[in-house]
Amino acid sequence: MQVFIKKFIFSLSIIFILSFILVHKSYAMVANATPISLDPGLYSTVSTSLETVHAWGQRQTQGAWGTGPVNYESGATLSYRANSSGTLNVDLIGTYCPGGACSYGSGTGYKGFVQFWNDPKNYIAFGLIHDPGVSPTGTTLMIEGAANGVPVGGYWPDNAITGYAHHFEFTWTATGISVTIDNIKTLGVYPVAENNPSISFLAAGRETGDICDTTFENINFSDGSVNLPPISIPSGSPYATYTDTITENGTGSGNSAYINMHDGSNDALSVGIQSDTGDVESNGTPQFVWERVQNGTFTYQYVEPASNNPTTIELAWWQGSNIAIFYANGTPIAQISMDFTPTLYFNVEGNVKANGDSINDTFGPVNIQVANGLTGSWNTTNSGFNTYGLQATNTNGQPQNGATFTITGTASGIPQGEDWNSTQVSGIAMIAQG
Q1: For position 228, what pLDDT does the model report?
Q2: Same-domain status, 244 and 177
Q3: Are the C-beta atoms of 148 and 193 separated by less than 8 Å?
Q4: Same domain, 201 and 243
Q5: Is residue 389 assigned to a domain?
Q6: pLDDT exceeds cutoff 60 at 6
Q7: How far apart (Å, rounded) are the C-alpha atoms in residues 71 and 63?
Q8: What is the Cα–Cα distance from 422 to 414, expressed in whole angstroms?
């Protein structure tokens, strides 16, 4: 797999580009999760429905694990804490496969593990590890944690678990947790309080240059283990609402259609529809997605299946509570924490993934309600807005509300070896708050 890079373009008093990493999508049905990386050489992807997490890369930070800060891992963490009891089944697959012989990594040390973090005194990680001190010639079982501040766990003997695929089943309650490995051996119950655990799927490299590569497949929580938090509409009127009827359509490997709010302080939120044939779960079918940059940090969430039919979407933001709500056809489908510093700016944007991909998105009529109204007119001509053959066009000439747009074109001229993972391939129109 690979890291997907996507870029928003924002307009302030000058035009600047804010880029961020967009990894494989997570999609809120069974649970939702946020990809994380604590090392610039380590990456993670999260599939539709949180059925698969892939954590991999070559560590760049300095210092062996256990001797300094936790700067050696990547993976995904549930976006909200789990309930006080439940069961999780998951397969840990070693997906570092040079020459066809797969393992969980290479170098002086690597590990893939599932972590249950309740509080600073109650946490535990279960997984597979290669380490000079505990398993210098192969991998073995790792259980590392604390119960009310007292260490628990340990390691099986060196090279005690061979092969590159193992099934783990975890059962937790408010007072303890156990694990069953390959449906054969159960360990625990470990007396680690798990009344409100944060659950993560992680891989790590021991030292600079070490490679880790674990795919967590067939992730399945029992009923009631995890629940999506309800959407709560803030009281009072939103500071800004942006409503648009969009059609995401095109051919090739990837297309998107978004509406966007952003400010001048590295804060941005886009909602819309994207299709990507490179996504192993959606297989190119359209999906609703939100993408957020807050203080320069990127997070995202795929929400639910969408379509290529005209769809009315709305993004509303409440300044006092710093909450945004994403609506699709009048129904709220996502609640997002978002802190803007007005003045605000508003985009319509369409993208394609690679040379030869075409786009035929439509937008409008747009309706933006914001304090002090809008200023100027929609800008579709900035040189940074329309790239590699894509073009945003104001099709009815309305300067502000009521405008309609197309974003069309076939991508060409993207440098060899690049696509929307590494360069901006877009058509954009933009307007500012008054």
Answers
A1: 64
A2: no
A3: yes
A4: no
A5: yes
A6: no
A7: 9
A8: 10
